């Protein structure tokens, strides 16, 4: 087995294991399997470690076809990293689960899992059975999750007092590349969430928030649109740029006369025949326009195009139209305006029209770029966050950051329990778990204690990333927890002058933090229980 692994030392003299996957060796068993897997998991966590916290570094990733992404979002980094090791893939999956359920804490969860693996490795070396470690971790995670509940507090806010929510979103955004605009972006996120939230039922449907981006302008120009925006313009430049109280026909059928199919032959051998055919076509289209007008439509939005002649006629008959609108957009427009998508022209009726208080075309700067704003919709719950920025990379990263902020606001509306951040919650849990270890006489106590040590990885990484001496800083903060019985002390990453995270307004949702601990424990237990790794030898 050792042939598949080699011990090497990194630039700081720390040992690490190189896995030679290409070598013929195709099977790892027992302790070797666990060690190899732990090494793989740890190496993924090590990459994310430096991205944690407000002073975390960003990563630049290049895809095989040359697209460059700059981000410090854990889930995204892992998503784009091309890992072919199965255990590393589990870590990617871990981050994705946290992203899916909670939307925030995607870096932290991986760092925690890496640290749990590191501690487990030490226990394995001391001869403790992996199953005992898994059991101890399980107990410890439950203690930690309960402890989090006990130190949590309620975060008060209301529809009229949104400032607390804005503050929370600002915390999330402060560690992102877009932190320069954290105030305005946080406000946009909170307003968007409140627009789609049902505060009574504590329900938020984030699907109703569309996040759209267009290269150009500044990040500061990012805005919240009370409705839908579509990257299209009116089909004819002389059509009105502004339609109030619009009644919208939403068509997925072609809005033009049926074209003779190629397999049918139409003999046009005289000018008269041509004119008759043309007249018929025109009449047909004219009837279609009339039908739209009869049911009361003042705007037509089509999935398909129509030719210049039809376009001209639409303009003449004063029926503004938008063509080539994608299926997803059409659906959103239908939901927002309370209209129905009409797949066959004959089915168009007044009831199926969508309603919007205002539809306007907006042009940007000196460019030809125009967007269609559909606002004051019948279903006022659909909103759009329209992101502007200098380049595609910036817009994509802003989208990810906004996503995190939206999730944080949503989580608080669903459950307004919070714990303080900056590593304070982890330190408090670490102390509680450590104390609990003393009450367990069995071998598990070692695992429980190791779990407590693993939790320290979060404050340690936050301190290290902020340029503070990690161990010294942690020791001071930990003793503060014990002496002052204050579970809010964390790492003063931004050198504010206090490490009381309540004063710094740095906190995370209780469910988010609990989920991090549960998910990290789960994946580590899974890795520990694998004792046989078989890979095809021609790998
Ligand atoms: P994640 O993807 O896990 O959310 P982040 O890079 O956003 O990772 O870092 C989150 C961590 O940074 C949390 O532990 C959070 O409490 C901490 N944090 C965020 N802002 C601050 C701050 N101003 N001071 C100290 N810690 C902070």
Label this structure with key terms.
chaperone; elongated; three-stranded antiparallel β-sheet; 3 domains; 16 helices; binds adenosine-5'-diphosphate; Chaperonin_TCP-1_CS; single chain; GROEL, domain 1; unfolded protein binding; GroEL; alpha+beta; ATP-binding; GROEL, domain 2
Account of the protein in words:
The protein is 46% helix and 17% strand. The protein has 539 residues and is an alpha+beta fold. The longest helix has 25 residues, at 271-295. The chain is built from 16 helices and 21 strands. The strands form seven sheets. Strands 11, 12, 13, 14, 15, 16 and 17 form a seven-stranded mixed β-sheet that branches. A three-stranded antiparallel β-sheet has the order 6-19-20. The chain binds adenosine-5'-diphosphate. Adenosine-5'-diphosphate binds next to helix 4, helix 6 and helix 14.
Q: pLDDT average, as an integer?
A: 88
Which sheet architecture does the biggest sheet show? 7 strands, mixed
Determine and state the CATH class of the largest domain: Mainly Alpha
Per DSSP E runs of 2 or more residues, the count of β-strands stands at 21
Principal-axes geometry comes out as: elongated
Going by helix content, strand content and strand pairing, the class is alpha+beta
CATH topology of the largest domain: GROEL, domain 1
Bound molecules: adenosine-5'-diphosphate
> Could you state the CATH homologous superfamily of the largest domain?
GroEL-like equatorial domain
Rg over CA atoms: 30 Å
Span of the ends, CA to CA: 16 Å
Low-confidence blocks of residues: none
Helical proportion, percent range: 40-55%
CATH architecture of the largest domain: Orthogonal Bundle
- Total separate domains: 3
**Count of discrete alpha- or pi-helical segments spanning 4 or more residues:** 16
